[in-house]
Design goal:
Helices cover about 20% and strands about 35% of the residues. The chain is of the alpha+beta class and about 210 residues long. A seven-stranded antiparallel beta sheet has the order 8-7-6-5-11-10-9, covered by helices on one side. It has a four-stranded antiparallel beta sheet with strand order 1-2-3-4. A hairpin with a 2-residue loop joins strand 2 and strand 3. The protein is elongated.
């Protein structure tokens, strides 16, 4: 049985201040376990904090896998923030070549319209208009919904953000504002990286041809 706080040595990262309990058997040095008590909430450590914070006891292999994935994700975020999206592998939008080649394809995207306040509140304060797969090109958000196809050029984007649970892009045409939202899915990049890539594409578009 793994013990509780006070029975194990506490490790503290000298770089980010994250603390964790460590359990290892000298007779089985490879069979160690770790439980994180506090994770740095800085955006640089978003991925690992999200996975470590409430994970409980992890095997050494589980912890190393999350740490490695977190390092790769952090590098991707930094690349996207600097405008380098060469690591993405664009795919073709089915049956609509005019829409351009997307940098991201995101399933499980919902289109929501605010009801009163709470446009950015996932599942509250909004009405779901449609849902489907979102394609993000260099100048457009293209939602292949269950009801219809929704196209929003980058000109109408008003806000891009993410939380622990979801990414949100708000667009506004005339006096109507709607938001596209998606959550963390196991076979997609995480919400922080999604929001960062969309923002990088948006800013590149706003900068004009000289940024191409």
């Amino acid at each position: 049985m793994l013990g509780i706080g006070g029975e194990f040595p506490i490790l503290r990262c000298s770089r980010c201040g994250t603390t964790a309990e460590f359990d290892a058997d000298p007779a089985l040095p490879e069979a160690w376990h770790i439980r994180f008590r506090h994770c740095n909430s800085d955006p640089r450590y978003f991925y690992v904090a999200l996975h470590f914070d409430k994970a409980g006891w992890l095997t050494g292999q589980q912890a190393l896998t999350i740490s490695t994935d977190g390092y790769i994700q952090r590098q991707r975020v930094q690349q996207a923030q600097s405008g380098d999206l060469s690591w993405l592998q664009p795919e073709q939008i089915p049956e609509d070549e005019r829409a351009g080649q997307p940098y991201l394809s995101l399933k499980g995207t919902s289109l929501r319209e605010p009801v009163g306040t709470g446009i950015l509140g996932l599942g509250s304060g909004s009405t779901v208009l449609d849902s489907g797969k979102l394609f993000v090109t260099g100048d457009m958000l293209y939602l292949d919904g269950q009801r219809q196809v929704w196209k929003y050029p980058f000109d109408v984007i008003k806000d891009i953000r993410y939380s622990d649970q979801a990414w949100t892009v708000t667009v506004e045409q005339g006096d109507r504002a709607v938001s596209m939202q998606g959550t963390n899915l196991p076979d997609q990049i995480d919400v922080q990286l999604i929001a960062t890539v969309i923002e990088a594409l948006w800013r590149k578009y706003l900068a004009g041809p000289q940024s191409q």
